[in-house]
Amino acid sequence: MKITVMTADEQILTLEVDPNESVENLKALLEIESRVPLQQQQLLYNGKEMRNNEKLSGLGVADGDLVMMVSNTSSAPPASSQEVLLNRDGSAVNPAAFQQQIRNNADAMAQLFQSDPELAQVILGNDLNKLQTVLRARHNERSEARRQQEEEMALLYADPFDVEAQRKIEAAIRQKGIDENWAAAIEHNPEAFARVVMLYVDMEVNGVPIKAFVDSGAQSTIISKTCAERLGLLRLLDERYKGIAHGVGQSEILGRIHVAPIKIGNNFYPCSFVVLDSPNMEFLFGLDMLRKHQCSIDLKDNVLRVGGGEVAVPFLQEKDIPRNFLDEEKQLKEASSSVAQGSSGSAAALSNAPTPSGGQSSGPAHGGPTQGPEFEAKVVKLIELGFSREAVVQALKFFDGNEEAAAGYLFGG
């Protein structure tokens, strides 16, 4: 284990020692490093003198702990050394003197900034109460680490037929594997702990600039009612396509806007939208339009390629995305209730069908049965328009056999 020794002349020494080493052997090592004779050394740990015949582990000295070395020319440590001693709870006896002495030692401050930046910042500050709090917290952390180490040692000598002890050993081994995996990720894959910013691009919808959230995991392109109103598209809302969008939750579908121009780069493309009562998600460019316009998400070059590559627009950096868009918790909650969470890649079931009760005027009238000769005739008729049989059957069933609604859906998709 490594311990830090602060000498009377404010020298900082970091030593690699064995936990079962005696204090006398530690003093001998310090004599080589500090040139202070062994007989003149007095070592203090948590304000208590360390006797020569005592072992470091017996005194509770653990990895990363601080030991004070003062001159032993008198029976008691000098007043200046007393001022930097620590109480049993880890706080400083004289916090102001402790703070000043560490501040005046450039090496100690450099080490603190590397090993414990928080404590270094507190020492440079003016809040002595906070300094005492941090010192006590560090003492508690070391005490907890020692307690866990003692528990691990006790488990090693536990009865191999003790089921509870074996369960604890298994849990300790599993936790060790988790900790090692975490440490490896910190070293080799630190990006995994950073926040992932969602993909946004600049577009123009009906001539109005907008920042579009690109989500290949969403089944349909959606727009909120407020956004559609701002873009001047709400007048085109077809309320016959009311329904409920199902995902992790659900959201009300207000209708559909069948076609409107969107500008990506310098090119214009036709786009259809599902209008949701979704105040947090303004505009989501979903899989339907990504497929229709042969888009590809190029994460290597960080661009969205449209039209098979004829247009490439860069994804926005975090600083260019409005702050309310970066509230990922709200966005993902809204996205999950309307389409699907893009991070999971799962598609939600968008129910654009009319309200189930046939007497309501909010949707088109039922078109008849979804099987039999009449249904097959509708299938053949729609296939002649260029759609696959599978898509036609699905659309007709989706709209309860309503041929016109199914055709509108197929042309709109």
UniProtKB/TrEMBL annotation:
Top-level taxon of the source organism: Eukaryota
SUPFAM superfamilies: Acid proteases, UBA-like, Ubiquitin-like
Pfam families recorded: Asp_protease (PF09668), Ddi2_HDD (PF24669), UBA (PF00627), ubiquitin (PF00240)
CDD domains reported in the protein's UniProt record: RP_DDI (cd05479), UBA_scDdi1_like (cd14309), Ubl_Ddi1_like (cd01796)
Residue stretches of biased makeup (Polar residues): 354-363
UniProtKB keywords: Aspartyl protease, Cytoplasm, Hydrolase, Protease, Protein transport, Transport
Stretches assigned to the UBA domain: 373-413
Domain Peptidase A2 residues, every copy: 210-289
Gene Ontology biological process: protein transport; proteolysis
Gene Ontology molecular function: any one: aspartic-type endopeptidase activity
Ubiquitin-like domain boundaries: 1-76
Cellular localization per UniProt: Cytoplasm
Region named Disordered: 336-373
InterPro entries named among the record's database cross-references: Ddi1/2_HDD, DDI1_N, Peptidase_A2_cat, Peptidase_aspartic_DDI1-type, Peptidase_aspartic_dom_sf, UBA, UBA-like_sf, Ubiquitin-like_dom
Gene3D superfamilies attached to this UniProt entry: Acid Proteases (2.40.70.10), DNA helicase RuvA subunit, C-terminal domain (1.10.8.10), Phosphatidylinositol 3-kinase Catalytic Subunit, Chain A, domain 1 (3.10.20.90)
GO CC annotation, single: cytoplasm
Amino acid composition bias (Low complexity), ranges on this chain: 336-353
Main localization category: cytoplasm
Family that this chain belongs to: Belongs to the DDI1 family.
Official protein name in the record: Ubiquitin family protein
UniProt source species: Artemisia annua
